[in-house]
UniProtKB/TrEMBL annotation:
<dbReference type="InterPro" id="IPR000182">
    <property type="entry name" value="GNAT_dom"/>
</dbReference>
<dbReference type="Pfam" id="PF00583">
    <property type="entry name" value="Acetyltransf_1"/>
</dbReference>
<feature type="domain" description="N-acetyltransferase">
    <location>
        <begin position="25"/>
        <end position="186"/>
    </location>
</feature>
<protein>
    <submittedName>
        <fullName>GNAT family N-acetyltransferase</fullName>
    </submittedName>
</protein>
<dbReference type="InterPro" id="IPR016181">
    <property type="entry name" value="Acyl_CoA_acyltransferase"/>
</dbReference>
Amino acid sequence: MTAAPVPWTLDHLTGQEVAVPAMRQTIRTIYTEVYAEEPYLRSESDARDWDENVLPRHLDAPGFALVFARTAEDSIPMGFGLGVPLPADNRWWSGMVDPLPEPMTVEDGRQTFAVYEFAVRKAYRRQGLGTAMHNALVGPWTGTRTTLTLRASSPAAVGFWDSQGYRSVGFSRPYPLAPLYTMMLRDHTPPSGRDD
């Protein structure tokens, strides 16, 4: 028997709001818990490195967006997703195993929104929360596409992102010792500005 979905609240947080120590610790705790699972198997040390060396770069990026999910009744953290627009000097496409044609990889900060992290705690999966978080994160984007990378060895992640309309455009190894990631791309219909 499946448990009834837990009502949630989604908050859009700025980089300054995420940088507040209590929120920063909450985000790190979710990251540590979710990415300790297969196939990631990241350690507490990996989470600390992400928090100290990777997250700050995102917080300072123009267009940074983070959606934070919590239970509606008692504000228990459920998950978060974060991303930024790809600037002209990005390295997002540089790790492609088979390079993509140049028109696909030229960025200007207005075309592509990259989902860098997306984590939903295990107890709150398969309730529609991931879709709601994704819609809240990328829905306001006014560019033409969104992108992310995923581990093909996680069938649940593959199924979820397929259901969100993403397609594979190849494989990426962003740095020499990195695992192989599937590069995903999704055409994005910008908001119309109308209340249809």
